[in-house]
Design goal:
Blueprint lengths: L8 E5 L18 H14 L4 E6 L28 E5 L10 H7 L4 E7 L1 H14 L3 E10 L3 E2 L5 E2 L1 H15 L2 E3 L1 H12 L1
Parallel strand pairs: 1-2, 1-4, 2-3, 4-5, 5-8
Antiparallel strand pairs: 6-7
Protein name: Cysteine hydrolase
InterPro entries: Isochorismatase-like_dom, Isochorismatase-like_hydrls
Organism: Pseudomonas fakonensis
Length: about 190
């Protein structure tokens, strides 16, 4: 069984109001927010560090364009005063955000990543985390994505896109676990 350090950080990526915009299309993992909420509650209960990442887009057509409601955190994922918040302008949460330094200063070597979009910000952040030497876990049922049209015009279902993204990460960058496995290890550590 996986054991997490007392200072393993939960990294919640882009759980902002805009991600629920209908124009993003069909998605997978309809219970992902419930799984994220369970993990957030467990992290808070165990006093482990929680890091919220918010995307601030440079594209005026984005659901995360500054100054609109889409940029705000969803109520369930509103950071507490004691929790860190990092803003990013590209998919990778480590890129010019100060996140890496913040983690190193606190001696945090383990990251548990949840959020959206699996094949975009989650994958990009997990790849960097793995490359930077962090022990990285991506929680498969606490992430989701949307149907994706490829460059040849073929539409790929969200579940296929999600699965392929997680398979990419499992090769070299992160361990892929389910929320029940992560929750069992956090409860085990508390005993």
């Amino acid at each position: 069984m996986t054991q997490f350090a007392a200072n393993a950080a939960l990294l919640i990526i882009d759980m902002q109001a805009g991600i629920n915009h209908p124009r993003l299309g069909p998605r997978n993992n309809p219970e992902a927010e419930l799984r994220m909420g369970e993990l957030l509650a467990a992290w808070r209960l165990s006093s482990r560090p929680v890091v919220h990442v918010r995307h601030i887009s440079r594209d005026p057509s984005s659901v995360f364009w500054p100054g609109q409601a889409g940029c705000e955190f969803q109520p369930t994922f509103t950071p507490l005063g004691s929790e860190a918040v990092f803003e990013k302008h590209v998919p990778d949460a480590f890129c010019q955000s100060g996140l890496e330094r913040w983690l190193h200063v606190r001696g945090i070597g383990e990251l548990v990543i949840v959020g959206v979009i699996t094949n975009n910000s989650v994958e990009s952040t997990a790849r960097s985390a793995g490359n930077l030497g962090f022990d990285t876990v991506v929680v498969a049922d606490a992430c989701y994505t949307f149907d994706l049209q490829d460059r040849q015009g073929r539409m790929w279902p969200a579940e296929t896109v999600h699965s392929l993204s997680l398979s990419n990460l499992a090769m070299d960058y992160a361990r892929i676990l389910h929320s029940n496995e992560v929750l069992a290890s956090t409860h085990q550590t508390q005993l």
